[in-house]
Design a protein that fits this description.
The protein is an alpha/beta fold. The protein is 44% helix and 12% strand.
């Protein structure tokens, strides 16, 4: 599949990897991010022609409204913009920084869909992250916002949209610099050392794998797959059986409580 696709956060990290992959697949890519100079550089580096960029803050609903007409209609939307947010025990965290993390990680996805009004059949991909499916101590804003993002994806899918979330795995990006800046006292000794070792050694998941997963979710091969949380590293999404189960099993690849109680009926 090809057409026009908007990639938020497309000037660096996983978002840039997605923009590169989609441009290589023949998509015309619109890169959106806050830093105009980085947007310009990212667009210039894309293979092919017809790409463009736009500088905006995804958390700014008014900025989205102003940009909507110039962006125009889309055949795909990838919401990769995100921040780590404040790090540390809850008593050390600035409450406004906690709220601001939600505004970007969750509000940025909501704002894009609200302003751009993509057709329900237009494929949308957002990014989950650490803490969405399990506790991530001292990264409360990031983990809680990513869990909320996955539920937003499920909600919009339940309302008829084609939208999914991708968990990219541990990818070394500029975001990890925030962990190093926080230090072991706030981030926790074990996680700080893990991040420092990964940054020093260049370890971590290849962002190209997450980009490949995104390309699949935007393609006709993933038609009918919606409301899913797909782990780029661990799920067998390249296998046709994965898509078939995602289309038929309501609880597959979702956030669910697993016990004798089921709270999936309307009004529960």
């Amino acid at each position: 599949m090809s057409g026009r696709v908007l990639v938020t956060g497309g000037s660096r990290g996983i978002g840039q990897a997605c923009a590169q992959r989609l441009a290589g697949d023949g998509w015309q890519v619109v890169v959106a991010a806050r830093d105009a100079s980085r947007v310009e550089a990212a667009v210039a580096a894309l293979p092919g022609a017809g790409h463009r960029g736009i500088a905006l803050d995804v958390a700014d609903a008014e900025a989205w409204s102003r940009a909507a007409d110039s962006i125009g209609s889309l055949d795909g939307l990838v919401c990769a913009a995100g921040v780590l947010g404040p790090v540390g025990p809850v008593e050390t965290v600035d409450p406004q920084a906690f709220v601001d993390t939600y505004a970007i990680n969750v509000g940025g996805v909501f704002n894009a869909i609200h302003a751009l009004r993509p057709e329900p059949t237009t494929p949308i991909v957002a990014f989950s992250g650490g803490g969405a499916t399990g506790p991530f101590a001292r990264f409360d804003a990031y983990a809680a916002s990513k869990a909320a993002l996955v539920r937003l994806v499920e909600n919009l899918a339940a309302d008829g949209r084609r939208i999914n979330a991708v968990a990219p795995g541990f990818v070394v990006t500029e975001m990890q610099n925030d962990v190093l800046a926080a230090g072991p006292r706030l981030a926790g000794d074990a996680y700080f050392e893990r991040v420092r070792a990964a940054v020093d050694q260049g370890d971590g998941e290849d962002p190209a794998m997450a980009a490949e997963c995104v390309a699949w979710l935007l393609s006709p091969a993933a038609a009918g797959v919606s409301g899913r949380l797909v782990a780029a590293r661990w799920d067998a999404w390249r296998d046709g059986g994965f898509a078939a189960r995602a289309r038929s099993d309501a609880d597959f690849a979702t956030l669910r409580r697993i016990d004798e109680q089921f709270f999936t009926k309307a009004g529960s």
